[in-house]
Amino acid sequence: MDDVKRATGLPATVVFRLGTLGSLAGERFAEKIEAYDLKLKHAGMMTALSLGPAISQQDLAAKMGVAPSLVVSLADHLEALGAIQRVRDPQDRRRQVLTLTEHGRELLGKCAAAARALDEEFTAALTPDQISALQQALGILTAQAGLP
Amino acid sequence: MDDVKRATGLPATVVFRLGTLGSLAGERFAEKIEAYDLKLKHAGMMTALSLGPAISQQDLAAKMGVAPSLVVSLADHLEALGAIQRVRDPQDRRRQVLTLTEHGRELLGKCAAAARALDEEFTAALTPDQISALQQALGILTAQAGLP
DNA sequence: CCATTATCATTCAGAGTCTGAACGATTCAG
DNA sequence: CTGAATCGTTCAGACTCTGAATGATAATGG
């Protein structure tokens, strides 16, 4: 119980390091996909669309943890790029059903390539064993948090 | 070379997972330290101050990767809380030298405690071995990136 | 010693991102 | 058929952060 003596150790925390490294990774990734006229949330949205069937903007907002009004502007941009398709649901004409287009899939593929390239930079100082251990741990955390 | 066939795999990327998990960790941590009237950057600033000797706002801005004008407002708030001390450097009276006060150290300790509590939630699904492997890998990435 | 130039902290306007409250259109419930 | 609920959209505004002034101080070079 010598908490008094022990250093605060905030930086030694997994949460703190996930935060700082995640912020850095996000910045770097954002720089890379800027070339495709995409922001981080655009990539997140395309990823969400790629993982499930066609989905309404409302549901997508919930899945992304974001306000529906934000989905509108993100979808506007992706639609202008030709990356997604907006179709009125015939069963419920209030709903706009979003689908990734072929061009959207290509774009997402380029994003993934950029991320893989960044991965190599990030993990350059790790041994193969450490990399797979990291991937495994992050995978479990991701699944547990219900993230894509 | 069957890249064509392979799924894009953005979500399987270390960078992507660091980004999403880091964002989540940041949100959760921000909620916890809200009780102390602190934002994420306040904790980052106090951490930076706790790791080195007294430092000017200019240098701190560089270390934090942030505009000097932002350091002003962050320091204003921390000073109002009594967490830091602003002293004019007698050798160079343009400089404001920042120091963590005793109360600041206590506050930072509470932040660290909050982070440790969050750590337990986050890593609940991991075995002890996986946790230490994760800590080791994150430690290496952190050091390589020159982060605290 | 003085004048110029550079550096520091600060202020302020504004860009960028995101939310929440409207609103019209559509659907659902009774 | 009427009222309530839901969808997408718009819009004002909160929040965070940056970059360009500004004034004070220091360094530099005649």
Automatic annotation (TrEMBL), chains A, B:
GO terms for molecular function: DNA-binding transcription factor activity. InterPro entries: HTH_MarR-typ, MarR/SlyA-like, WH-like_DNA-bd_sf, WH_DNA-bd_sf. Pfam families: MarR_2 (PF12802). It comes from the Bacteria. GO terms for biological process: response to stress. Residues 1-143 form the HTH marR-type domain. This is HTH marR-type domain-containing protein. It comes from Planotetraspora mira.
